[in-house]
Structures are given as C-alpha cells and as structure tokens.
Give the backbone structure.
Amino acid sequence: MSQVLRQHAEQQFAEELEALRKVDDRPRPPNWKLSPWAVLQYLMGGKLDNGFEVTPKYIGNPRLMEIAVSTLATDRALLLYGVPGTAKSWVSEHLSAAVSGDSTMLVQGTAGTSEEQLRYGWNYAQLLAHGPSEQALIPSPLVHAMKLGKIARIEELTRIPADVQDTLITVLSEKTLPVPELGTEVQAVQGFSVIATANNRDKGVNELSSALKRRFNTVVLPVPASQDEEVQIVTKRVAEQGRALALPAEPPALQEVRRVVQIFRELRNGQTEDGKSVRVKSPSSTLSTAEAISVINSGMALAGHFGDGVLRAGDVASGLLGAVIKDPVQDTVVWKEYLETVVKERSDWKDLYRACREQL
C-alpha cells in the first residue's frame, strides 16, 4: 500500500497524543480528548513526568497558545490572524488534533467558496426524485463538526465573499444551523467550536463584518521575534519534511539555513541585521518563514537528486530567486540591488553571491 504524502496531525503525532492522554488527569471540557493543560503541552512541547519528550509544534510566545486554547474551552470561536507564513494553519490543525482528535473537518476558503460549502448542499438526483429529505441533504464539514461536538476549521476566511462569511453568524451566536427546507435545524453538540485563519496581505481580501468579528476571539500570530527563533523553526520543519519526502540529501548545514533566514528578514524588514543597519528596499513578495522552509527543501531536492547530497549555495540560489522575485520588473531591481550592496560585501557569502548572480 502506498504511503500518503502528508499525514494528518493526529496520525503523524499519534504517539505523543497517546502519551499525553496517559498522564493527563486534569479536568477536560465535554468531548475534548485532552485537557487544556495537555493541549498546551502538545503545542509547546517539553518533557512529561514519565520522561516522554513531546516535540514543540509552535515556537513562540506560549501566552498566545494559552489564549487560543482557553478560547476553545468557552463558547467563543477562535480567529488566528497574521501575515502569511506565521503558522496559522499549522496551529489550527494541531489544535484540532489535540482537542478533537480529528483535524479533517476543514473548509478551504477561496474567492469561489459558496454558501453551500459552509452550510449544506443537496443530492439533486434524490431531490428531484423524492423532494427535500434528510437523505438528499449533503452536510458540510461544519455541520459534521456540530453534530459530533468537534472543531471545524475554516482556512483563509477573508478570501471568502462577505455575504458567504456572514453565514457563520447564526452558527457562532446561536450554536444552531436552520434547515428551512426540512423545517428543522442542526444543533451543536458540546465540544463544537470553529477555528478560522485569516491574513491581511493577500490580494482579494474581504474584510469581516463587525457582527462576525464579535463572534471571534482574535489571536494575532506574529512573525518570529528573532533570527535565532526563526532559524529554529526552519531547521525543525525542514528536518520533518525531509523525512516525510524521503529527500536523498543530508540535513542542511546551520550556516545555509541561517543565511536564507537572514536574507528573508532583511528584505522583509527593510534593513540589515548585522549591526550596520543598512537600509534596503523590500520586494512585493511576503518572504515568510514558510517560504524559507520551501527554499531549503527545494535546495535539498536539487542537492540530493542532481548533486552530491550536500546543500550548497548553488542549490539555494534558485529557490531564493523564485521566492523573492514575484514581480519580474520591480522585484528584480530590488534583488539585484540587495545582492550588490549587501551580499557582495560579506566576505563569507561570496559563494552565495556568485550563485545568485549566475541565476539572473
């Protein structure tokens, strides 16, 4: 049997979740698989009393995760907000896995997301043959979560048209979803909640109405506070994805990871981080932590399949070019200027400078 490309969080970390269940003797809200304390432990990582090591899923301020977990223990929905690449979807998935043991009740928001995808649809063959009935109704992941008392996830909420977004107001305030065609309703079982993610940097953002905003408790996930913290995140995720993808390359040297992260932070913040505080122009691209992970993974694939298995500057350069240059005119000018004024001047970055110039 073929192995799946990407396991759900509750599958990939089943051993950790089971270990936490065995030691978790604290009170649990209805239908929660773990107590709020154990959910936080799962997210932040650490050693349990029995010596079992839980890996961190979120590297950052633990207070933010405490607020997120405690929100789900109330009747409020949770909105994870921030710029792209700040681990919103990652945190959403792991929260659902720890609380409900199921992270699959997902609605992916797009400009084409319809009201039926949030509420319910119909099997039109059944509808035409027998009229509206329970058998003809096709429940959405949100309805499944309501019936089972689990967490529903809505990704990229601000990508969904505003009139469709407001479909959630009744569900979040009344904990019920009317089905007028059947003269009935779906009532949420205890344990049900919604985790939504949103960012304000995407094109086509639809602002949330004030009525919908009031139904959410918003937690803003920031970009990593320091370079060391971002390097730690990238190193951890690259190692995990490298194993999952079976990339035939050695784990990248810390130097290469640190250089990619430093480039991203400098271009993102508009100044260098080496103490000289040289001003640099920022490109139109987001240059998130998630993109830094992709650059390193892409380089590892090149090194493993077309090199000697060791990640080098030449393997990283093409990924950097693709991540930085989204606008072929404006971003190319910014990237060339950064190479000449910053990268070229660093004596230990000569190999990266040459590799990047060759790619242009």
Notes: The chain has a mean pLDDT of 92. The radius of gyration is 23 Å.
